[in-house]
Write a structure and sequence with these properties.
268 residues, alpha+beta, Pnp Oxidase, Chain A, 7-stranded antiparallel beta sheet
């Protein structure tokens, strides 16, 4: 009379690594018999490479460089263009309040060759690098600084630079409604600006927590060239439970470059 295979498994004769020890509770994972694949070595390998990358570790920074007309227009609206992730002005909030970003995807357009060799099928070959759009999202403060920034940038592209701003005057809803009656000409035009007047540079850094700051260790920086917003998503508002207002915008760009840094050399 033969014994079933599961009997040998229980006593550890069929597969020793799956044997059940009645003195200790069973584990939910298999313990590797190869010492080079042990859990301790796995943790050591992670620590040697700076730990694991977390999705909430990043930094976003717009660089408007020599866009003097756009800078002057933003300053007129009391939105200083952001140069660092600080909250000293409304422009600094654009970097700080960006709560969702993404590294751009990489793809290529391909052509096809058929019949190159006898018996060979269709062969795909890349011929053009495809650059798609990307999306950034912000949480808004009570002054709606991110929304004002995106709206002003988009209107600057189409030459709508007649926005009037009243700082510290219309504090109440009734005053704001009364003073914002449309006074512009009905047959006004939109004069599109040249790309070199509104396209900026965007830097998206993948960072990890360090000893002095939550984004101190940088592993790579993606630099996107000729960035501009082509659409701003609708901002929903409704009665019900209170939620932080968010705004999202979609951007186009021409090309991007990755700058890699070895995070293992961090000595902070």
């Amino acid at each position: 009379m033969g014994f079933p295979l599961y009997f040998f498994g229980l006593v550890g004769l069929y597969k020793p690594e799956y044997a059940i020890n009645i003195n200790k509770p069973p584990c939910i994972f298999r313990v590797a018999t190869d010492k080079t694949k042990s859990i301790n070595n796995f943790i050591t390998a992670i620590a040697a490479n700076g730990g694991m990358a977390m999705s909430n570790g990043y930094d976003v920074e717009f660089d408007f460089g020599e866009l003097t007309k756009l800078s002057a227009y933003m300053n007129k609206l009391d939105i200083k263009l952001p140069i660092s992730s600080t909250a000293e002005n409304a422009g600094g909030l654009i970097n700080m309040f960006c709560d969702e970003a993404q590294l751009p995807n990489i793809s290529a357009a391909v052509g096809q060759i058929n019949g190159r060799y006898l018996g060979e099928g269709i062969i795909n070959y890349p011929h053009t690098r495809i650059v798609s759009d990307f999306t950034l999202s912000w949480i808004c403060d009570a002054n709606m600084a991110p929304f004002k920034f995106l709206n002003a940038w988009h209107e600057f592209i189409f030459g709508q630079t007649e926005i009037e701003t009243q700082v510290g005057t219309d504090r109440f809803l009734r005053d704001a409604k009364a003073n914002q009656t449309p006074k512009k000409s009905i047959n006004r035009i939109n004069r599109l600006r040249y790309p070199n007047e509104y396209q900026a540079i965007l830097r998206i850094s993948k960072a990890e927590r360090g000893r002095n700051a939550p984004n101190e260790r940088v592993s790579l920086v993606c630099v996107l060239e000729n960035v501009y917003p082509y659409s701003i998503d609708a901002v929903p508002m409704s009665y019900g439970s209170s939620q932080i207002t968010r705004v999202s915008a979609n951007f186009y760009y021409t090309r991007h470059t990755y700058y890699n840094y070895d995070i293992r050399k961090y000595t902070g």
